[in-house]
Predict the structure.
Amino acid sequence: MTPTGPASGANGGRARIRLAALPERISNMESQLTILLPVAAVWLAAGVVADGLPRLRNTRMLRRRTGWLLVLAVSGVAVTAAVLGGGLFSTGATPVDRAAAGLALAAGPALVATACSVRRIRRLRAGAGAFASAPATPAPHGLRAAAAHPLVGLPLQVTALATLPALIAATGTDLGADPGVTGPAITVGALAVVAIGVRHALRHNRFAERARPAVPSTRTVGALHV
């Protein structure tokens, strides 16, 4: 039986309102993704470039990739600050305001990247530039150890990871709405950060061990008996 009366009219009215609001929601979603995707892409590219720096065996390539990384890191900081600043000055629930709210989680790692990573990347580029007169020189283990330092790549990669919740929310999926999803998502994110940090620390220690000069043995050689 088809329902009639005031109840069916109210349901039909709500359905029409939802359908009328659907194009606006899709437009806002697309605008929010248009803002967030470049931010996430820049941080992801910076994380990938930083991860490959210690594997470079040539000083010329190390200096070139470090220059790329410096540009990506500064660009990531700039676009993140622009979105967050736009959210502060926007009024109402605009796409910029929602994008800035989503990027609040990435503000902390981006600040660490600004304070630590950019400074270390500049030092690393200057160190690699000292070999400009001999570009084919193999990269010393000391430079590769500096490239593998956790404060070079870890803040960039954590910032890229922190942009994922904002992207997921921009597609219409609210991770915070269901406690059964929020808890596992936070756990997975924390474990991912710990795993990335441990990997960076182990790799840095490995290169630092290679960079240390060999210590001559202090053991006295006994008399040779024939």
Remarks:
- The chain has eight helices and no strands.
- Residues 17-22, 220-226 have pLDDT under 50 and may be disordered.
- The longest helix spans residues 6-52.
